[in-house]
Fold this sequence. Notes:
The chain is α/β, with parallel strands linked by helices. 48% of the residues lie in helices and 11% in strands.
Amino acid sequence: MTQAWSKLEQSAARLSAQHLRELIDTDQRFESLSFRHEGMLMDLSRQRIDAQVMNELLALADEKQLPSAIKALLQGEHVNNTEDRAALHSALRLPKSAQLQVDDQDVVSDVHKTLDRMEQFVNQIHQGQWRGYTGKPITDVVNIGVGGSDLGPLMICEATHQFRPEASLNIGLHFVSSMDGSQLSNLLLELDSETTLFVLSSKSFGTIDTLANAATAVDWLQERSGLNRELLIKQHFIGVTAAPEKAIAWGLSEETLLEFWEWTGGRYSLWSAIGLPIAISIGMQGFRDLLAGAHSMDKHFEEAEFANNLPVLLALIGIWNINFQDIHAHAILPYDGRLAHLPAYLEQLEMESNGKSVGIDGSSIAQRTCPILWGEIGPNAQHAFYQLLHQGTERVMCDFIVPARRYVDRESSLQEQHQLALANCLAQARVLALGDAALTDGIERPAWQRYFGNQPSTVLMLDELTPYNLGSLIALYEHKVYVQAVIWGINPFDQWGVELGKKVANDLITALNQSADHQYDPATEGLLNEIQNLRGNGQ
Ligand code: F6P
């Protein structure tokens, strides 16, 4: 236990009897606890902290040697110790003029060569030069991928739809991820095989979910065209992977492959060629703006003093809530329908990175780590789970994410809708913090109409939701995750916890397909028997 940790425990005891409404009601509260980086404001004034806690959290960061840990990350040291590699997602957004040599690789040059190849692909698609098996230009692009090879591009494409250039307006963009084929089977009923291009996205090129969807897509193309697999893959598939040899063995050729590198974690990969659907949607300029926004946050993370460093502060507030306020649920609440997929994206980013209980040295972690994260478009969640936030027994920390300006050149009714969303965002943050004290009518209410408040929240307000600001926002969360991992002493860049399930599923496929001898646990055997009986009865 470090000195700062003990002091924070004492501070938690000191503040335990104080309600957030009292903490908020102090001089210069907003001025001292809101922080800006370019088009983003981070407001921590509704957190259960005071100046002393903030200083102790900053001391904790120093005690945990955060400055050198940040350097190690950005310079490409092997911070992913269990896989012995760097985690260089920040390098994917370095400008061409930068230099970074890691493990004998000229990283910046390779990154920009790939960006240039992506640009060629995007131009061919936009200009109608990428043609299907009957010579017609592509009208629909389907990304097949899962986890990091799906969630990032899906989230960004949805959020930036309005920034599509003229050239991409007629291209339909679709995402399929589910291994059971639900999304794909519906889509294949609507799409035209002659004009559909599949982007097969898989870092490992070994994910069964993705390969199963890809096999169905190939079957569909073959059935519709009567042509051979090789030719169809050549014209109707682009592969994006860090395992080119496996992609080539599957049938792709080098000309239709975009590569990235092992040092890009799956959930950190939207900035790599995995972002191809984004570039198809908002054009290469839009994609470069996204990278530039993220790069700007990288620089801020690297250079800003911790007392004004947004990712560091966001991480420290999380540490305070989780480890000193005993809060283990975190709601992500965007007040903007364009960010509908942000909660799912952050669920993977945070929980797959920091949902761990073993330290970097293999020892058990003594304190709590990543909380349970979930979320929904805020206004919709108001009609679903806010009851629990306001009157349940769980302590929850919330992130409100909202743009200050929207629809500036659009109908006034849409502008009013945005005002409505803003008012609701501010109201919810206020009621969660103050509880009943947000009421000014002085009326006594029965217990079931009372609000305790005291639920902490952060407001992240973007001046506007643009590709640049969105890039900054996502990089903010990435770095927050890293800072928390450093404080907890864990490796946020591996994901061993997902492996065993995959292995056991492989085994069970065999058991499902043949009634060979097997002896699983009674619960699994029970279900296998039920399935076999139902099959036997033709149901
Ligand atoms: O199983 C988890 C995971 O490995 C994620 O980390 C990753 O984003 C996802 O699967 C997809 O992996 P791939 O891009 O290799 O198909």
